[in-house]
Design brief:
The protein is mostly helical and about 270 residues long. The protein has twelve helices and four strands; from the N terminus they run ααβαβββααααααααα.
């Protein structure tokens, strides 16, 4: 498949874009990729117990001398596996340059969103909103200070934001690099190896970088505690990466069916030449 030729006539431009399946596919993948990255960052402020979901007792694991470790994870881990699956799919069909560009775009959008949230927190609250009493569901409830609640839920510390963004970007770049190095040796075969392998490596880095920056540097946590919690997080991410391997093949088959074998092959060949 040669280079995409787009008519410069304004009347035909929209038609050319809408009729180009590779362009439409990239638009959809980009939208889902950025949306998942943004949502994962914001819901990451909640900590949940994985054991409690299944009605199990706490894991009570001891690592690096740190006792009482359980599978207490940020809610963001629900979506991060999806982000890394999308990274591998985009990498497969569009190449390293596109993944790096989308990673920079996603990081910029997340930083912009955090800036807007920061400005929203700083806006002087209305009196009745700040000390709202009652709710539509239960008029007898009382919220003592909505402004404080809003700031605590929506706002994150500077070190946490920095750690999360650095971990995301480094993880993405490592994922791209490992994915392509594996594909050089395997060719079109062993999609599971390059997809799951690159995710396992990048998630290992991501799991520790965010904690090292946010809590070891930013909050004076002991290094052993950071390593212990990072290891627990990585165990979960690693297991999920393996469990979701079939999803890579599922998405791969859907895309191949949508683009057609020839167009899909041409895209993958072009991606490898970057």
């Amino acid at each position: 498949m040669g280079k995409l030729k787009i008519d410069t006539n304004a009347a035909h431009l929209e038609r050319d874009i809408l009729l180009s399946k590779p362009v439409l596919l990239l638009v959809v993948l980009t939208a889902v990729f950025v949306a998942n990255t943004l949502v994962a960052e914001f819901i990451g402020t909640k900590i949940f117990s994985l054991e409690a979901i299944f009605g199990l007792p706490s894991w009570d694991l001891t690592l690096f001398g740190v006792k009482g470790l359980g599978l207490n994870l940020t809610a963001g881990v629900i979506l991060w596996p999806v982000v890394f699956i999308l990274t591998d799919i985009i990498n497969e069909y569009y190449g390293e340059k596109v993944v790096r560009l989308l990673s920079y775009i996603a990081m910029t959008i997340v930083l912009f969103a955090f800036l807007m949230v920061y400005l929203a927190i700083k806006l002087p609250p209305n009196d009745w909103w700040s000390f709202e009493s009652g709710s539509l569901g239960n008029p007898t409830t009382h919220v003592s200070n909505m402004q404080v609640a809003f700031a605590r839920i929506m706002g994150q510390g500077l070190w946490i934001i920095m750690g999360s963004m650095v971990a995301f970007l480094v993880g993405q770049l490592v994922d791209v690099y490992v994915f392509h190095r594996i594909k050089i040796y395997t060719g079109e075969k062993k999609l599971w190896l390059r997809a799951t392998g690159s995710t396992l490596v990048s998630q290992w880095i991501d799991s520790y970088v965010v904690l090292l920056i946010a809590f070891w540097i930013g909050s004076d946590w002991e290094l052993t505690r950071v390593l212990a919690i990072g290891t627990v997080n990585y165990i979960y991410k690693g297991v999920m990466a393996i469990i979701l391997t079939p999803a890579i093949y599922g998405m791969h088959n859907v895309i191949e069916g949508y683009l057609g074998h020839d167009a899909a092959t041409a895209l993958k060949n072009a991606a490898m030449k970057q």
